[in-house]
Amino acid sequence: MVLDCLSPAFPKPMRVLILASGSVLRSLCGVAAGSSKASLSAHFARWGNLGELNAKDSSQETVISLVGMLVGCLVVKVVITPLATWTTLLLLLTLHLATNFMAVRSVCMRTLNRQRANIVFACLHKHNRILNPKEVSAKERVFERDGILRDVDDNCLGYARIGIPASELLQRLGETEKLTKATNLPDGRLLQLLDVFEDEGYVLYLEQPSDMVCILLKKGSDTAVQLKAWYHALLLARLVRQGYESEKKPMDMVQSTLVAVRKDWERVQARLGEAGWDLDTAALETTSGFRVSILIIGDQDR
């Protein structure tokens, strides 16, 4: 809207570019708004009444649009100078953004996405306490870096990627030839990694010194498996940052933390359900994730 209002001040060639940019940004805003609305509608439709909820929402939007048109007709008669026009525009935009920000902050989601899972698990690691959705909502940020792992004091511990393709894991495990695109895997690390996670629904690897935790999901991995993998990633990053495992190799650190995760996860999962978290809806992956199938040929994993 601001670009559309600014366009008359520019020459015609530049004006076309500005108007086109405004249309692109408006389309991107529409896509983001549509996806956010779908998530919020699913959150509020707790009794399977999604259709009724959408119908009421559409009716409210219609009424608000009509009221807005009526108020706009009255404002147009008063706002006649450029200064008054821009002042009113910026004031209304600020009010619009502020009310939307407060509305988003007031929503208390029960699904565990990356940030909420990070907040819950970080508090659990340090204080042995599961935060409920309302407590997490008060700590949740509207803008957060994707995949960041934080401790309970908001210090960055590293980053994690979940649902990565197998090719990315191979590239991080070894070295890829530029010409042939072949990947060399020294020390049999891949076979060792697959052996460690043979009974799990995921494969996790810590890349150093970047402190990037890569999570490969196996075929059939459900929400519980994804949460377990993220719990494992945060525990691993926390111990590495605190220096408890500084003398061990990445593979040894992954294996030692997996033992702790296996010991505690069933109890953690039960406590999450008791705290009111939705453990049936997967929200950790923000894009279409990848799944891999591991076939056993003889005594070797492939």
From TrEMBL:
Which segments constitute the Root UVB sensitive protein C-terminal domain? Answer: 194-286
What keywords are annotated for this sequence in UniProt?
Membrane, Transmembrane, Transmembrane helix
Q: Which InterPro entries match?
A: RUS_fam (IPR006968), UVB_sens_C (IPR055412), UVB_sens_RUS_dom (IPR054549)
Does Membrane show up as a keyword for this record? yes
What is this protein called in UniProt? DUF647-domain-containing protein
Instruction: Tell me what organism the protein belongs to.
Output: Aureobasidium pullulans (Black yeast)
Name the principal localization, coarsely classed. membrane
Give the family this protein belongs to, as stated in its UniProt record.
Belongs to the RUS1 family.
